[in-house]
Design goal:
The complex is a heterodimer of chains A (111) and B (113). Chain A has 111 residues and is mainly beta. Chain A contains no helices and 11 strands. The chains are: A mainly beta (111), B mainly beta (113).
Chain lengths: 111, 113
């Protein structure tokens, strides 16, 4: 099946700084790339998504960029806050009904 | 608050027990899913129901038996589980198939003794 590599696995940033998480894939068939945030003791929650016909999408402090040629997409969080601390998963649907999740990034915001 | 409700939140069972996990959504979604999540790992798809019919079974052992009584409810029946089945079981729903947003419940944390 399709693999989605996600880096880094852990990330610590000072409050107010930016955080960037990257995902790469090998199958070109995906047309949908969501990002999920999972807080401790909760289920994942969609925070932003991007479709393959768009190169960038922004929602307040969160942005996602997609480079289909290079087969990678990234999550950018600016002006980080303590409540941004969580595990983040990228995902893609590679030509079928299934979402394939990345391995996850544990983001810690240092006050 | 999540609009996908899972019960129970915690379950401890022995290897000979029979138990069920329940999931309910009232968003009118026609696709519902069961995922298994081990600690520090991403969710792994187990089953997909589309319009109340099982459309994907990811080669899950028969000791896990899904059931979709109607478009709002999804059950996962558990029997003769193994300790390695201990995990967080997540239910999710979406408007149709997995090309749109998945709405996850908070999960049922299962411990098999």
């Amino acid at each position: 099946g399709e693999n989605v590599e996600q880096h880094p696995s852990t990330l610590s940033v000072q409050e107010g700084d930016s955080a960037v998480i990257k995902c790469t894939y090998s199958d070109s068939a995906s047309n949908y790339f969501p990002w999920y945030k999972q807080e401790l003791g909760k289920g994942p929650q969609l925070i932003i998504d991007i479709r393959s016909n768009v190169g960038e999408k922004k929602d307040q402090r969160i942005a996602v960029t997609l480079n289909k040629t290079a087969k990678h997409f990234s999550l950018h969080i600016t002006e980080t806050q303590p409540e941004d601390s969580a595990v983040y998963f990228c995902a893609g649907n590679f030509g079928n009904e299934k979402l394939t999740f990345g391995t996850g990034t544990r983001l810690t915001i240092i006050p | 608050d999540t609009e996908v409700t899972q019960t129970p939140k915690h379950l401890v069972m022995g290897m000979t027990n029979k138990k069920s996990l329940k999931c309910e959504q009232h968003m009118g979604h026609r696709a519902m899913y069961w995922y298994k999540q081990k600690a520090k790992k991403p969710p792994e798809l187990m089953f997909v129901y589309s319009y109340e019919k099982l459309s994907i079974n990811e080669s899950v052992p028969s000791r896990f038996s899904p059931e979709c009584p109607n478009s709002s409810l999804l059950n996962l029946h558990l029997h003769a589980l193994q300790p390695e089945d201990s995990a967080l079981y997540l239910c999710a729903s979406s408007q149709a198939s997995q090309t749109g947003e998945l709405f996850f419940g908070e999960g049922s944390r299962l411990t098999v003794l």
